[in-house]
Design brief:
Blueprint (H helix, E strand, L loop, with lengths): L4 H7 E6 L2 E6 L16 E3 L6 H8 L27 E7 L2 E6 L4 H10 L21 H4 L6 E4 L1 H4 L4 E5 L11 E5 L8 E12 L6 E17 L4 E9 L9 E3 L13 E2 L6 E6 L11 E4 L11 E7 L3 E4 L5 E4 L3 E11 L4 E8 L8 E3 L5
Parallel strand pairs: 13-16
Antiparallel strand pairs: 1-2, 3-4, 4-5, 6-10, 7-8, 8-11, 9-10, 9-12, 10-11, 14-15, 14-21, 15-20, 16-19, 16-21, 17-18, 19-20
């Protein structure tokens, strides 16, 4: 999905983030989102649809979906959409909205929105089988046993010293020994392998360490010399090695439901890594960005990607160096956040996206 660069240019303001001139959006007194001229009056949701795709059928700015969605107040999870739901475009109380047709057309949507439905209970709907915001298949790999932690914290945790059998390769049922801060007998712990370090392109500081859980162990005993015995009860496709770290299992789950919305963060950001690639990202790729929960990022946040303009020589002004304006090159949606890093899915790219590309909330169009 692409936006007109002319529209974006009209919506942008120049401001300063951390001393660098970047582009950001005006959030005050926003006009209602623009419904596309070819938006369908009626759309039957299909298996394989995503909320981002559906929103893009109706809006030039699909990150503003919740502003046009007619919430059903009789449902506990009112924003879920399922295959075979019939979406209809309605004008209710002077606003253009989209809702699910339950058989009464726009009159029924208005009843759902206002709560004027004859019912003494609120229905509870399941998140299972609902339309996801982005394709789960594209991001699942980055939700399985991989997390980002503070390197300083990671390096203070107990480490695997040896295995009972003395072999390097271990599996479920084997006993291993860890050394460090005493662990609690009878408690489960994760065994984690150190991976990629994340470096902020601007400050060059390490802002996160990617670690992967390779096993789960149950503490069976501790010794006064700091050695702890663990019985491995689960392994995840990799052997446990000397030097792997042991700490409480961390939950890497994301909210079962989240929706595209303009990011509200306390500063601009950058792409710090293109996952599974040594070069650039395109639509459908996953990137890591230097905005995490500390900066206000959350699942569903949409950010616009800009590439810094090239520096050229002005031949009419004694070859004075001039930097060209930053250009909009794509959009990403955050799906998993850590302290200072988030994973984001590339929704759209007009050019290849690279490490160092700038990130800002999208314009209100």
């Amino acid at each position: 999905m692409k936006m007109s660069l002319k529209k974006i240019a009209k919506a942008l303001l120049v401001t300063t983030f951390s001393g660098a001139m970047l582009m950001t959006t005006a959030h005050a007194n926003n006009p209602p989102p623009t419904i596309k001229a070819d938006a369908p009056n009626r759309y039957i949701v299909k298996k394989g649809d995503t909320l981002w795709d559906i929103s893009g059928r109706y809006l030039d700015s699909p990150w503003r979906w919740k502003e046009i969605w007619a919430t059903n107040k009789q449902i506990k999870n009112p924003d879920l959409i399922y295959p075979n739901d019939i979406l209809i475009l309605c004008v209710i109380q002077g606003k253009t909205l989209i809702g699910v047709d339950t058989g009464e057309g726009c009159a029924g949507v208005e009843k759902q929105l206002t709560g004027n439905v004859v019912s003494s209970t609120v229905s509870v709907t399941s998140t299972a089988n609902s339309i996801p915001p982005i394709p789960w298949s594209a991001i699942q790999h980055w939700l399985d046993k991989t997390i980002i932690v503070n390197p300083a914290d990671f390096n203070t945790t107990p480490y695997i010293l040896a295995s009972k059998k003395g072999n390097l390769i271990t599996a479920s049922g084997d006993k291993v020994y860890a050394k460090g801060v005493p662990l609690i007998v009878g408690q489960r712990y994760g065994v984690y392998r150190e991976g990629e370090k994340y470096v902020d392109p601007k400050t060059q500081n390490i802002i996160g360490l990617e670690v992967t859980q390779v096993a789960t162990g149950l503490v069976t005993s501790t010794e006064t010399n700091g050695v702890t015995s663990l019985q491995l009860i689960d392994s995840y496709g990799k052997e446990v090695r000397e030097g792997d770290r042991v700490f409480v299992e961390l939950n890497n789950s994301i909210p079962p439901v989240f929706y595209p919305a303009p990011a509200v963060v306390n500063r601009g950001g950058m792409i710090v890594r293109v996952m599974d690639s040594i070069s650039s990202a395109a639509k459908g790729s996953v990137v890591a960005i230097n905005l995490g929960s500390t900066q206000g990022a959350k699942p569903g946040d949409v950010l616009t990607v800009y590439q810094k303009g090239a520096v050229i020589r002005d031949i009419k002004d004694n070859d004075t160096p001039v930097r060209l304006p930053s250009e909009h090159t794509g959009m990403v949606m955050v799906f998993n956040t850590f302290d200072n890093i988030s994973y984001a899915y590339v929704l759209d790219s007009e050019l290849p996206l690279n490490v160092g590309d700038q990130l800002l909330p999208p314009p209100y169009l």
